[in-house]
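hey so i finally got around to running the thing on that chain from the lab meeting. sorry it took forever, my laptop kept dying and i had to restart like 3 times. anyway pasting the input first so we r on the same page abt which one it is
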Amino acid sequence: MKKFTNFFVVAILATVLMTSCGEDPSQEVSIELDLTTLSLNVGQSQTLTVTVVPADAAVTWTSSDASVASVANGVVTANAEGTATITATAGNQTATCVVTVIDPLTYDPGVVINGVTWATRNVDSHGTFVANPEDFGGYYQWGRRGDGHEQIDSDTTHTLSLTDVPAHGDFIVSTIVPNDWRSTKNDNLWASIKTANDPCPNGWRVPTIEELQSLVDAGSIYKTQNGVEGRIFGSGNDTIFLPVAGWREGMSSLYRSTIGSYWSCTPYGNYVCAMEFGNVGVGTTQGIGGFIRSDGYSVRCVKQ
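ok and heres what got predicted. didnt touch it at all, straight out
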């Protein structure tokens, strides 16, 4: 009788355990993010929303490149230009979001006009665009990289440079032909293939005179945009605004808000070809004289 009782008890316990397991099965873990792609400017943050089953499952977050985009509890912070993959993990399941980080000072969407892709903003300091299309930006001496001389209030010197990269950021004033900031002119400092001295951001370069002429050929109208005067080049949705930033000549800035002067990378004898416009007309110099190399003009880049 004792053996039968023990067997009966064990059987009941086994049945209870089997029934208990059947009533409370282990759930499959699933995880999902509200976004699979995300674009942020450097310095911006955004929270990714995660849906996980069961709701109390632990979620861990990782980034494929925290130097580009870091993550903490779903909050993604953009640190530097590039691409990183954010991964949320619960159990053995993952969900990902590809984050593209853009630096607005080096990124520009560009506009195609007459087959040439133009930046929508002028160059500011070396390798950066201004924040807005109406901002004037830097005043570059032809062929010179951005080193501070391009700022409107930089100091000046009459000592010419012996090298392609001066050891200072002073604006070099020259009154002797060929009126170059360099003691011996170098026609290769800017070119149709991007050079080390080219001040445009990566992927962009100073245009050739032919490219500037194609912009002129696309047509333009003089207009005030957000309180700034300038010309809109192109037509329809494919247009860019170039402000009349004037130019710099020694210690003086001339014709600001009256004339727009924009460098090409094309030298012409002792001078350089460029585009100039006002409220009456617009034109380029192509083999009919040119602009002085030591003056400071605006730069509008084209795509490499």
